[in-house]
Structure prediction request, 280 residues.
Amino acid sequence: MKEKGVLPGSKLFFHTASNFAKQALYYPFSGGRYIISNSYETKRDYFDQFLFIHIIKGKMEIHYKNDEFIGDENSFIFLNCHEPHLYKALENTEYHWIHFKGNATKNYYDRLFENNGCVFSLKNNWQIPNCLDRIISMLENERVDEHESSVMIHQILLELEKISNQDEHSLEGTVKQAIAFIEGHYGEKIDLHAIASHVNVSPFHFSRVFKKHTNFTPHQYLINYRINTAKSLLFSSNLSINEIALKCGFNNVAYFTTTFKNQTNFSPKKYRDYMFRKKS
Prediction:
């Protein structure tokens, strides 16, 4: 192997698909079993294929467009290589992979990525590794049954759909957990990375998932919660505006005043005066 970071014992196989396979089936181009060091990295702006990776052991970092993901032991990665992407080892890693195509692959990819991102946990799933290894064994033996390999690729996509549907419910729980964290720590110095770290999700993926479920970015949700809390305190307490600003997580009263006015069209003082007039 001449690729940087690909260690001895790694294997790479190729296949030339028939015209029928190209027109009607899912079909592999290449595949292999790689053992890599933390110096391994693949970066492309465009590659006219899709990619399955099963991480047997180790850890990898994946970048797709503007998102960043982490895959560790027994994770499965599904990448659309037509878009800018990068994947690299964070430690010594072993993984199995195939590059493939098929007319419906992009539709599957877009659907799965929208729900789950590009990294899937294979906990309690043996079908996906089994299908992938069967395809790689065909490539290794140079005896690819194109109909069978197409069925295996389709089976992998079906299993990823099942995982995605399960993970959708899990992600709802993750968002609820993040909201509880925000509402419990809004007065502290917290940011996207702190919230994402609390729920063990990469910041980019977490932000996208959070917005999908709430229609707000995590930062917007935090600011809204701080402002709503400030409104309540302005109305119901005798705290000074400076005390309220600090209590609600704003590091100075000027920033608090600007943010409050942007959200309400009132300065904090005018809001308090207005609400007390209404109260009386």
Q: What stands out?
A: The chain has a mean pLDDT of 91. The two ends are 81 Å apart (CA to CA). Residues 250 and 256 are 6 Å apart (CA to CA).
